[in-house]
Structures are given as C-alpha cells and as structure tokens.
Write a structure and sequence with these properties.
Layout lengths: L1 E2 L12 E4 L7 H9 L3 E4 L4 E3 L5 H8 L6 E4 L2 H13 L11 E4 L2 H9 L13 H8 L7 E3 L2 E2 L5 H8 L3 E3 L2 E6 L4 H10 L4 E4 L2 H10 L2 H7 L4 E3 L2 H9 L4 E4 L5 H13 L3
Parallel strand pairs: 2-3, 2-11, 5-6, 5-7, 7-9, 8-10, 11-12, 12-13
Antiparallel strand pairs: 1-13, 4-10
Amino acid sequence: MLAKRTSDTTSPTGRRVLITRAGDQSAALMTALQESGVNPIAVPTIEIVPPDSFAELDQAIAGLDQVDYLILTSVNAVNAFLDRLAAQGRSQQDLSALQTVVVGPKSAEALAERGITVNLIPQDYCAEGVVALLKDQVAGKRLLYPRAALARDLIPTELSAVGAKVIAPVAYASAPPVEAAEQLQQALAGGLELLTFTASSTVQNFVDLLDHESMTLARQIPVASIGPLTSATAQKLGFKVVIEPDNSTIEALITAIKNYFSGTR
C-alpha cells in the first residue's frame, strides 16, 4: 500500500479532505472520515447520466435467453442495467439461468439488495481480475457486459480473444455536475490537505472544471487514489499520489487515509 506522510502532524482532526465521488455514492466515505476527525469536503466531479441511446442495451436485453454470463463491473452498472431491464418489461427472473459475475463486494451487495444472487467474484477487484477469472471457462459462450460509455475495452478484447462472444452495450454515461466548478474553487480557496479520486473520470473531470491558476494550486495537494488505474490517470495529469490501497475498495481507501494521517502504513 502506498502511503507517505508529508507532515509531522499525526492528528487527523480538522484536516480538510476533498471528496470527488458521485454525490449519491459518497456517504460511506464521508461518514467514516468524519468519525475519524477528518473534515470531508464533498464536491462531486461526476454524476451518472443516461447514455445517448438505449438502443444497443435494449437489443441485448431482448436477447437475454441467448446469454450465458452477465458481467457487471460497478454499482452504477448494476443499477443502470436492472433499471433498464424493468423499463423493458423484463423480470429479474429472466436472469436466473445466467452466471452473474461482478467486479467486487460492493457490486455484489447492490445485486443482493435487489434480490439477485452473484455467482462469481474475482480475486482482484478490477477488469483484469474479471478477465483472469473467466478466460478459461467462456470459450464459445455469450457474455453480456453492460458498460459505461468511457469504459476500457479490456474485457471485450481479452475475452473475445479466448473465443467468447462479448456483447458490450453502453448502459450509462457520466458528466461533471454543472455547479462543480464554482464549488471546487471555493474548496481550494478554503485550503485542502488531501484530494481523493475514486475513478479516472473523477480525476479528468476535476481537471476539466478548473482554470490554469486553480490547477497549479491543486497539483500541490497530495492525492489519495482508489487504485492503479486512477493513480495512473492522476499522475499523468500532474498530481502526486501518496495513497493507494492494496485493494481497490472504498473500505481500503478509508483505512489508508486514516493511516496516512496517523503516520502509519
């Protein structure tokens, strides 16, 4: 776990930490940091929006009886897919014959809350983990992978290469909230000791929302990143990542931030 201190002060009390996670998904992170004495400042740089068109997803839903595996790699994917399933007049019972694959425990919890059993979870909570889990069992199978508009092509490319038929319709997209730019300016003006990013899109939107002067200031603030892909995006855009947990989960990120402020690894 990457966690380096930049100050000799070990108490987290009052430290201002920016939370850029989508507003409807930041409660656990906000609450845990507040309980540890940190002052989280919530400015979501991302909100989930419908895709430009549901045509491909609707076509995939119409062909569910030909699908062997359903792959869902985020809570957003779970919600977007199931909401559209219902909108198309289909039932969760229509998923009973599928092998359901999720990227990690949060996605599994989101499915369980809606009464759906998860069959497979990779050891590594990322797209690479999904590929490693499935690559030896999906030759000749049809896989449905409802994805984000800007998702990487790793899962379709790698699993198609081993003989699977991967259907990958866009189920949702993301955009920066209209009020975020002004809120970020205010947060930076008030002083911040840590920026948190939970997806590459939160980093990119953060940069897109700020002017040059504000970005110069922001790049001086240490960053807590949820995992390697987000860290790579942040570093490419000029940020100094000082926290990256071993597991790409909110719980691991919370622990890493607490350890960072207490001066432990």
